[in-house]
Amino acid sequence: RHCVQNNNCWSNNEDTVPRKKKTRGPIMKTLWDVYNALIYHALRIGYSMIRNLYLIRCYVPNYVKIFRS
Questions:
Q1: CA-derived radius of gyration, the chain
Q2: pTM above 0.85, yes or no
Q3: Both ends of the chain: CA-CA distance in Å?
Q4: Which value, to the nearest 10 degrees, does the dihedral of the CA atoms of residues 53, 54, 59, 60 take?
Q5: SS3 for 28-39, per residue?
Q6: Cα separation of 17 and 11, whole Å?
Q7: Rounded to 5, what percent of the chain is helix, strand, coil?
Q8: Mean pLDDT calculated for residue range 52-66
Q9: SS3 state at 3
Q10: Which domain of life, per UniProt (predicted)?
Q11: Which carries the bigger pLDDT value, residue 32 or residue 68?
Q12: CA 1 to chain centre
């Protein structure tokens, strides 16, 4: 609840910022959103790759046994 209040205060402050700064604001915000999205997707893809590698490492020996027998 406290954080939400702080976010509201911050966004209100942003609205009262003089117009000179506002021209650069949306661009920076968009870049930041893109940056965060890239990091998020990179982490998610990395995590799934690691998980897949782990699964492969677990399953491959079983398949090898099946083929050998």
A1: 24
A2: no
A3: 62
A4: 50
A5: HHHHHHHHHHHH
A6: 10
A7: 90, 0, 10
A8: 77
A9: helix
A10: Eukaryota
A11: 32
A12: 23
Q: How far apart are CA 50 and CA 58, in angstroms?
A: 12
Alpha helices in 1-69 (DSSP H): 2-15, 19-22, 25-68
Tokens (6 digits) for 44: 């998610």
Buried/exposed 36-46: b ≥16 CB within 10 Å, e otherwise: eeeeeeeeeee
Amino acid at 62: N
- Residues 1-28: pLDDT tens digits? 454 444 445 444 455 555 555 556 788 8
The rounded distance, in Å, linking the Cα atoms of 13 and 23 is: 16
Q: Which two tokens stand for residue 64?
A: 């090898």
pLDDT tens sequence across 24-54: 678 889 999 999 999 999 999 999 988 888 8
